[in-house]
Amino acid sequence: MNLESNLLHNDTLQEPFRAPPADEPILVIAGDVREMIKTIPDNTFQCAITSPPYWGVRDYGVKNQIGAEPNLEDYISDLVSIFSELRRTLKPDGTFWLNIGNTYTSGGRKWRQEDSKNKGRAMSYRPPTPPGLKKKDLIGVAWMLAMACQREGWYLRNDIIWYKPNCQPESVRDRLTVSHEYLFLFTKSERYYFDQKAIKEHTKNGNGKKNKRTVWSINTEPCPEAHFAVFPRALVRPCMLAGTKVNNLVFDPFYGAGTVGIVAKEFSRRCVGIEIKDEYIDIARKRTASVQRNIFSSVSQTPK
Ligand SMILES: C[S@@+](CC[C@H](N)C(=O)[O-])C[C@H]1O[C@@H](n2cnc3c(N)ncnc32)[C@H](O)[C@@H]1O
After folding, report:
1. CATH 3.40.50.150 fits 3-289, yes or no
2. How far is the CA of 209 from the centre of ligand 1 (A)?
3. Model-level pTM?
4. Taking the C-alpha atoms of 93, 97, 102 and 105 in order, what is their torsion angle to the nearest 10 degrees?
5. By alpha-carbon position, which residue is closest to atom 3 of ligand 1?
6. Please, which pLDDT band fits residue 126 given cuts at 50, 70 and 90?
7. Residue 201: what are its φ and ψ, rounded to 5°?
8. What is the distance between the alpha carbons of residues 183 and 158, in angstroms, rounded to a whole number?
9. Angle between helices 259-266 and 278-289 in degrees, nearest 10
């Protein structure tokens, strides 16, 4: 099988949405998620897993990028509307896993220099301090977004702490270095598909199994091709195992360098992504092309 052909690339709106078949399991739709998501029919996906741009943290250098809204309220309402559309595309028993980190006010700074270890830190803009907050304030944007999604109709089922043992050092003198982000589990309905068994943890003595806990210790994973934060495959795997069965369709509306597609392929699921930046779609295509479908594995196996 030609591995390159595993990735369909639909960058026009002329063709109606067609879910990717099992032998070409990944479809990437190029464009602005706010428009492209409307082309996807209701009740299409079993599960969605995503990490949207954080507010005022990265400059992806494209028009209409999410995360560059000057006002925090606009950022939250942009994401809430996108996720409301996402809920429409989710099956009634589907799950939605949202990775998001907190940020600080920029303290009046208008731009940020790149740093030698992290080119993605360069910013041509910095959002102003939101009304009611002060210089140096922790914004709490992760929880603001979670509560807004809950008010809008989502069931909020878990807040999972992603603890990063290898977090970026920070040269701060008057607060702690931030070493965690959140992963929120939302559902469309009160009852939903959740394979608890697939993600059970070993007990301390190793003799038994227990329900997975809400603090996950996972190192960040470098992606040399991309100048921005991709999420580690190890963060995506439990979400996909708990949220889907083999061949189910998974969605990432902020596809980036295609980590959700990689894990979907590993676990013999199918995946649809939306991404605004062509350069990232190319990176994703290369990264997913080399992944072997793990057709013989049982769902509870986690590839190393
Ligand atoms: C944090 S990155 C996602 C990284 C991804 N989880 C991975 O592991 O590669 C967020 C992505 O959202 C994309 N993005 C920003 N605004 C967008 C928009 N309006 N429509 C679609 N994608 C957008 C960015 O280009 C970036 O690739």
Report:
1. yes
2. 36
3. 0.90
4. -70
5. 256
6. confident
7. -105, 155
8. 8
9. 20
